[in-house]
Design brief:
It is a single chain. This protein is α/β, with parallel strands linked by helices. It has a single domain (about 30-330), classed as Aldolase class I (TIM Barrel, Alpha-Beta Barrel). About 45% of the residues lie in helices and about 10% in strands. It contains 13 helices and 10 strands. The protein has helices spanning about 30-35, 40-55, 60-70, 85-95, 100-105, 125-130, 155-165, 175-180, 185-200, 215-230, 245-265, 280-290, 310-325; strands spanning about 5, 55, 75, 115-120, 140-145, 170-175, 205, 235, 270, 305. The strands form 2 sheets. An 8-stranded parallel β-sheet has the order 9-8-7-6-5-4-3-10. The protein has a two-stranded parallel ribbon with strand order 1-2. Helix 10 (about 215-230) links the parallel strand 7 (about 205) and strand 8 (about 235).
């Protein structure tokens, strides 16, 4: 046990919970509730910096938390040069995210380890579904004019409908940031509500692009409006903004999730995305979920990390725990 901070070793079970949360039906638009939203920026920044500084895990407990993080990764490829072969390779990694010999050395070969989802563009839904067949891993598709969200409204809705029809289990839409920046919260509500209806049975994850919203108060209000409109997850970023997920914006969003649950009884998921490339950073987000929202938000049903390179670093850390050495990055299957 470390003596430099609070130990978290007895607070995690690696295996995912068996029951998925209920869908978020949303609520009527409540302007009065929105007007009550306040954010103390300096207090948020202090708290966000404090969580990873005061929490630590070592040795086998760190390995357990890192294996837990793997279950919540949305393994992602969103490049203009994506090919079927690249997506198939990504899906193979999603099915076997950590090499078997590492899992065997850790005594974790029986976990059924897999990632939370594979996230791709619409054109790659079909090859992803084929490659993941029988695995139970969902296919998530970015949609609604990703990443800018500024296309024609009907075209954005049609894109959602087409991705659902193509077999996407989850839809990651991106909001029109101008609604938030202009304070037109009703327009944002109506936009997300329309996406919710277009998703049908697919889960809706709304990207609010916090790096473009200017203030933490805008982040808080946008998060609340998206949940009112029926978002099953709220997500920080597209990964394409100059600033993506940060601990401060994530803390604000987590607290809005908590407020929404307290008022409605509905649990909404959270997904930080963009710029999360190290095992240490992933642990910080897990600790935040545990402290701010509680044990259910350590499960992939309520917590995801959008990442393309994170898994490589987690596997390196697990290999070090298993064998006492770090492999070079180019030796990792995802390198």
């Amino acid at each position: 046990m470390s003596h430099t901070g609070r130990d978290m070793s007895d607070n995690v079970s690696i295996l995912p919970a068996p029951e998925a949360p209920k869908r978020n039906p949303g609520t009527a638009f409540e302007a009065e509730w929105l007007n009550e939203v306040r954010v103390n920026t300096s207090a948020v920044e202090r708290r966000a910096a404090n969580i990873p500084a005061r929490r630590t895990v070592k040795k086998e407990w760190q390995a357990a938390w890192l294996l837990k993080a793997v279950f919540s990764i949305d393994l992602t490829t969103l490049s203009g040069d994506d090919t079927h072969a690249r997506v198939e390779r990504l899906c193979a990694k999603a099915r076997q995210p950590v090499r078997r010999e590492i899992l065997e050395a850790l005594g974790a070969e029986g976990l059924g380890l897999r990632v939370g989802a594979v996230c791709v563009y619409h054109a790659m839904i079909a090859p992803a579904r084929r490659a993941l067949m029988g695995s139970g891993i969902p296919v998530a598709a970015v949609s609604a004019g990703f990443p800018a969200g500024l296309g024609a409204p009907r075209a954005r809705l049609l894109e959602v409908e087409e991705s659902v029809a193509a077999g996407a289990d989850e839809i990651d839409i991106v909001i029109d940031r101008s609604h938030a920046l202009g304070g037109d919260w009703r327009a944002l509500y109506d936009e997300v509500r329309a996406y919710r209806e277009a998703c049908g049975a697919a889960h809706l994850k709304t990207i609010i692009a916090t790096g473009d919203l200017g203030t933490l108060r805008n982040t808080a209000k946008a998060s609340l409006v998206c949940m009112m409109a029926g978002a099953d997850f709220i997500k920080t970023s597209t990964g394409k903004e100059a600033t993506n997920a940060t601990p401060a914006v994530s803390l604000v969003m987590a607290r809005m999730i908590r407020a929404y649950e307290e008022r409605t009884g509905v649990r909404v998921g959270f997904k930080p995305a963009g710029g999360i490339g190290t095992a240490k950073a992933a642990l910080g987000y897990l600790f935040m979920m545990k402290e701010e929202l509680g044990r259910p938000w350590l499960e992939p049903e309520l917590f995801r990390i959008g990442a393309s390179s994170l898994l490589t670093d987690i596997e390196r850390q697990l290999e070090h725990r298993a064998h006492g050495r770090y492999a070079a990055r180019h030796h990792q299957p995802m390198a």
